[in-house]
Write a structure and sequence with these properties.
Layout (H helix, E strand, L loop, with lengths): L1 E7 L4 E6 L5 E7 L4 E2 L5 E2 L2 H16 L6 E8 L4 E4 L18 H11 L2 H8 L9 H11 L1 H4 L4 E4 H10 L4 E2 H4 L6 E2 L4 E2 L1 H5 L9 E2 L4 E5 L2 E4 L2 E2 H13 L4 E6 L3 E5 L8 H5 L3 E4 L5 E7 L1 H16 L13 H9 L34 H22 L8 E6 L5 H10 L5 E5 L3 H9 L5 H4 L4 E4 L3
Parallel strand pairs: 1-6, 6-14, 6-15, 9-12, 16-20, 20-21
Antiparallel strand pairs: 1-2, 2-3, 4-5, 7-8, 10-11, 13-14, 16-17, 17-19, 18-19, 21-22
Length: 454
């Protein structure tokens, strides 16, 4: 009995098969060419995506080496497919980086604002096309005749589930991810959605663990938002312990599934939002442009010291060097992030440039850079309530392999035990877990963690 999962990112599309114990036995990856919309902006080519999903599914479902009994999909958010009565897309899958018209924002807020109240109730900053509800509103207002042909508006995970099952449904992790559609206080669609008559195209909401019957090739899950999927394995790994997940990469996303306080206007200003977990509970989140800033500053360091941009990979954490930097014994300079304006906990434009001339060695400068970035992550942790009532924090992603960063982060969070997570393919595994709720071997498997204090 095997589980087939589609893990669909904007760049990479993966198909994975898990055996009954939760081990990956097949992993295939592809990249699909982008299409263009009517304005020349890039977008996901739905025809190519549909063909890849169906052909891949058919290939493995009929392969006698595997016995596929469960299928699910995880995919990126802010991605809506609008289908007609024949299940054909009415519109392209517009990219969430496409600008949202300023005049449309004004008319929307005039009808359904004010902005601060709406954002607090929907637990999301105003993000333009990254708010999926605004994508719907834009199409309804700009192309009303075509909009009338839409029978179902589906987030990408649910579109894939529908391709495989023939059933169109909605589920909470996609609805609750910075869409402006979900009222976190009321636990349902926000009033503006009904006032704008957009609820007509939103299918029935079902639990994330729901499956769409047993077809010829097994039970098909309803899909799950990728960030919520990546959190699922940690619920099982942590047991009854309260935890944070610090997921690092280009963006560092700090997720707190145990925060009970609603978002404040200041937290929204500093780019915090809420997701919904696979159990339907709010997950407070903050984001930081960590990887981008690291890439920018290490290029500056490489040029200044005449070394490779990847020279930092040769360094090991030097606790004595950290001590001297913290004590001011050796030269250091105020740090000014240069890639974070308008995002994260530090949205203000930079007030200066980090002065590298005060550092005698690359190692000193890089350790000080890690101190600064780790301090910013600590701010992100504090914003989501991670300084109190949390028993541990898991760190995963690219920076979990950076020993200097991890040492700096533990110093920045002295009261919070950190564990480096080694859960391969956490997003796909999370999607598999939610459709294997009755499989004890799948749910109770152990993953590898390393405590930084060891």
């Amino acid at each position: 009995m095997h589980t087939l999962v589609f893990d669909i990112g904007k760049t990479h599309k993966k198909c994975l098969i898990f055996d009954p114990s939760g081990e990956v036995v097949v992993e295939e990856e592809t990249r699909l060419p982008c299409g263009q919309d009517e304005d020349g902006d890039p977008l996901e080519d739905l025809d190519l995506l549909r063909t890849w999903v169906l052909e891949t599914f058919q290939h493995f479902a009929t392969d006698t080496h595997y016995s596929i009994s469960r299928i699910n999909a995880a995919a990126y958010g802010a991605s809506l497919v609008h289908v007609n009565a024949q299940a054909e897309p009415v519109f392209p899958l517009y990219d969430y980086l496409k600008p949202f018209p300023e005049d449309l924002k004004e008319s929307f807020l005039e009808a359904y604002g004010p902005e601060e109240k709406l954002c607090q109730e929907t637990a999301s900053p105003w993000l333009g096309m990254l708010n999926a509800g605004l994508q719907m509103y834009r199409l309804q207002q700009h192309q009303p005749d075509r909009w009338e042909h839409v029978q179902a508006s589906l987030h990408l995970p649910q579109y894939v589930a529908g391709l495989l099952s023939g059933q169109w449904v909605n589920e909470g992790t996609s609805m609750g991810c910075h869409t402006l559609l979900w009222d976190f206080d009321a636990g349902g669609l926000h009033a503006w959605v009904r006032a704008a008559r957009l609820q007509r195209t939103l299918p029935t909401l079902v639990p994330t663990t729901h499956t769409l019957g047993t077809g010829a090739y097994g039970q098909i899950g309803v899909g799950i938002h990728d960030s919520s999927a990546a959190l699922v394995p940690f619920f099982y790994a942590a047991g009854k312990a309260s935890f944070l997940l610090i997921s690092t990469g280009t963006w560092c996303i700090t997720l707190n599934p145990f925060a009970s306080e609603p978002l404040t206007s200041e937290e929204l200003r500093r780019d915090c939002l809420c997701y919904l977990s696979f159990q339907g509970q709010p997950v407070k989140a903050s984001r930081l442009f960590l990887g981008k800033e690291h890439e920018w500053q290490t290029r500056r360091l490489a040029f200044h010291f005449g070394v490779s941009p990847l020279f930092y990979q040769e360094l090991k954490p030097d606790e004595a060097l950290f001590d001297r930097l913290e004590a001011g014994i050796i030269g250091q300079a105020p740090f000014y992030p240069e890639t974070m304006a308008g995002t994260g906990p530090f949205p203000e434009p930079p007030q200066g440039t980090w002065d590298l001339s005060v550092y005698d060695t690359y190692a000193a400068a890089y350790h000080d850079l890690m101190r600064a970035l780790a301090g910013m992550v600590a701010t992100s942790v504090a914003l989501v309530g991670g300084m109190t009532g949390i028993e541990k924090a898991y760190v995963d992603g690219g920076f979990a392999r950076n020993a200097v960063f991890l040492a700096a982060l533990q110093r920045a969070l002295p009261g919070l035990p950190l564990e480096v997570a080694k859960i391969p393919q956490a997003t796909a595994l999370g999607a598999a877990l939610v459709v294997n709720q009755d499989q004890a071997a799948f749910l109770n498997r152990a993953w590898e963690f390393r405590k930084l204090s060891e």
